[in-house]
Amino acid sequence: MVAIVNSPTLSRLVWPAPAKINLMLHVVGKRSDGYHELQTVFQFLDYGDELTFDITQDGEVRRNYDFGFSVESDLCLRAALLLKQFAADDCGVIIDLLKRLPMGGGLGGGSSDAATVLIALNQLWNVGLTRDKLAELGLQLGADVPVFIYGRAAWAEGVGEQLSAINLRQPWYLVLNPNISVSTAQIFSNKHLTATPHMKKIRALEKDAEIVSIDALFSQGVNQLEPIVRAEYPEVNYLLEWLSQYGSPRMSGSGGSVFLPLDSQQQGLDILANKPRNSLGFVAKGMNFHPLLIEEG
Ligand SMILES: C[C@@](CO)(OP(=O)(O)O)[C@H](O)COP(=O)(O)OP(=O)(O)OC[C@H]1O[C@@H](n2ccc(N)nc2=O)[C@H](O)[C@@H]1O
Ligand SMILES: Nc1ncnc2c1ncn2[C@@H]1O[C@H](COP(=O)(O)OP(=O)(O)O)[C@@H](O)[C@H]1O
């Protein structure tokens, strides 16, 4: 947890917004509001975006960057405005964002940014909401936001908001992205997407003390959105085929990023040096704890 006091100097600290990957993802149903019920396992990566906050006393929420999404759809601004309902009238902020995560990449970049805004401004504006309340606010912004506030690698159900911590191995991963944005809404609306029966939380996952291997999760089958994305986006299919010469790659979330667990960081750097043209990539370590984990109680 970042221990921080509300001082103009310290508020310029860099606040991390790490990526997540989905180590398995099953679609188990569809709710009446159109959202799909999932069973998935989230792990964080030690790679992501970075935010800084200039706290002001003018009550305004502003941004100091432009990555193409409008002010109205900007998840950072929306998160700040949601929290502002609980803050003093004069609380204001200018947010800056260093964007490393590919947008529409299945790595939860926008959701992670929004979660970091909620966590940071809750402290910097002295709002004092609990972690559960922040997660509830976050869910209004996106299904992926709660896990970043929960702060632990997790088995997730519902739309991703029913979370229980799991203790996973934390290998190095190579992550590749085809440099295209995949729309989550478009993938979930594909007519070939069918729900499968609920999977019982696998026994190894229930024992919190036990370290769950990535192979154990992969043995539960591929991400069920993967065949749909592969069929619609040949670039994603190509990256998965290319990476399979080195092991068993998987797609994260609704794509288009794909990842491969590694034996070592060096192995990832060697593969990365030869990555397919036009793809983006990085090597990062799996993390079971979010760097801003809010310890309560
Ligand atoms: C698929 C996952 C898996 O972690 O990750 P990403 O690929 O986005 O990273 C998430 O469930 C995505 O969460 P998030 O990206 O926050 O999605 P949202 O903005 O809430 O939803 C975008 C749209 O996708 C559809 N959607 C999303 C989540 C879900 N469980 N069922 C859905 O049907 C809905 O049409 C929704 O309007
Ligand atoms: N701060 C933000 N960072 C990234 N994307 C954002 C942000 N605010 C709004 N968006 C919008 O959300 C979409 C999905 O973003 P992202 O979270 O990166 O992908 P995914 O949901 O696939 O992991 C982007 O294409 C963009 O239009």
Automatic annotation (TrEMBL):
It is an enzyme of class 2 (transferase). GO terms for molecular function: 4-(cytidine 5'-diphospho)-2-C-methyl-D-erythritol kinase activity; ATP binding. The active site is at residues 20, 144. InterPro entries: GHMP_kinase_C_dom (IPR013750), GHMP_kinase_C_sf (IPR036554), GHMP_kinase_N_dom (IPR006204), IspE (IPR004424), Ribosomal_Su5_D2-typ_SF (IPR020568), Ribsml_uS5_D2-typ_fold_subgr (IPR014721). SUPFAM superfamilies: GHMP Kinase, C-terminal domain, Ribosomal protein S5 domain 2-like. The keyword Metal-binding does not apply. It catalyses: 4-CDP-2-C-methyl-D-erythritol + ATP = 4-CDP-2-C-methyl-D-erythritol 2-phosphate + ADP + H(+). Coiled coil: none annotated. Belongs to the GHMP kinase family. IspE subfamily. This is 4-diphosphocytidyl-2-C-methyl-D-erythritol kinase.
